[in-house]
Amino acid sequence: MIEAVGLTKRYGDKTAVYNLSFQVRPGSVTGFLGPNGSGKSTTMRMILGLDNPTSGTVTIGGYPYRKLPNAPRQVGALLDAKAVHGGRAARSHLLSLAQLSGIPARRVDEVLRVVGLQDVAKKRSKGFSLGMGQRLGIAAALLGDPQVLLFDEPVNGLDPEGILWVRNLMKALAAEGRTVFVSSHLMSEMALTADHLIVIGRGQLLADMSVTDFISANSADFARVRTPDSEPQLREKLSSALTEAGGHVLPEQDGALRVTGLPLPRISDLAHEADVRLWELSPHQASLEEAYMRMTQGAVDYRSTIDQKAGLQQPLPPGAQPPMPVPGQGQPGWYAPPPPQQAGQPFTAPTPPSGPYGGAPAGAYGAPGAPGAPSAGAPNPYAAPAPQGQPPVAPAQPPAAAPAPAASAPAPADPTQPKDAR
Fold it and tell me: Which keywords does the record carry (predicted)?
């Protein structure tokens, strides 16, 4: 178990961590969350004895890290995946750590297989990608088969398969009764991995509770209700009925209603009594990200702003109108609409240039002439039907190319002219 009591760390006039107290218990994955600059990395460094606290104490199993006998066999950590000599092979790096801690060499090969680096064990780490470096750092943390593990952003640079593997690894380690402390900025991953959360902001404790309790305490569930778009009067009628029943109704950008204060069965009954037809009635539970953003919005030190592009916009030509804003753009869940289409004409990409280096030859990968590819004069099967009473519009035919002029034979040379004039 990790226990911090009144932990404080100052660097000159800057206080990185102030009076921080918490416990990380075995048997569960504890997530360590906080905005950039909140003191997470400083706290983890003090746990591992890399930084001395200005005041307060932090212990692992009742002892400071520096007083633990053979600490690498009891505590494994990944704080910086780049803390490896680039000219040293992966296996050599792990073997040197094992020899310093009295760990048998066979364990090196075991952890290399666990993290999936057995095929590159003899390659120098300077050629590793970010994800491979993360795997090597995790292997170093697992080397001594410790009971306490600390990971700082362990999934950075990993592909989806690697992220899933790390998630399952954390859960398996905790299921064995180990203490697992994980710092991450990926809220979606923490929601799937962590059982308990410790949240700090500006060096101070903001929350110490389970994931479920954290979401419930920092968010409000609501119901999403939608009426037929072609009958806006029904939406107004339903909104009035819900408000009179004690609900709180807010319109959303897509025309739906966000309702709080009323359970779903009650909303359905009120809509039935008001003779309002519903297109949607769905519950919505806030995500960990929403709850986290709500709690930490006052503890963020680095905030981005909208780029005003001052002085970079070209002046509009005389008589031109500025572009209209796209409704919903920039909001969660908004996606750009598909490109505009003419009636009966599907969107097509520009024709690639031809030639030995200008795209696939005819008949390859669906290019013109490929088996199953539509011919130039074939009708479009996805075209909209022509209105009744009007003949279908035939596809425009390209103009016939003008015949090339016949090549004429060169004129015979005049023997009376000198060679230089010919």
Answer: ATP-binding, Nucleotide-binding, Transport
Q: The tokens of 194 are what?
A: 């962590």
CATH number of the domain to which 258 belongs: 3.30.70.980
CA distance 225 to 340: 30
E strands in 237-338: 248-251, 257-260, 280-284
Q: What is the pLDDT of residue 325?
A: 57
Pair 177, 232 in one domain: no
Tokens of 398: 């390209």
Number of structural domains the chain divides into: 2
Q: Which domain, by its residues, includes 242?
A: 218-295
In the block, residue with structure tokens 């009891």: 74
Contact by Cβ (8 Å): 253, 325? no
pLDDT by residue (tens digit) across 231-271?
Answer: 889 999 999 999 999 999 999 888 899 998 899 999 999 99
pLDDT of residue 414: 54
Does 138 lie in the same domain as 231? Answer: no
Q: List the chain residues with pLDDT less than 50.
A: 332-378, 380-387, 393, 395-396, 401-402, 405-409, 419, 421-422
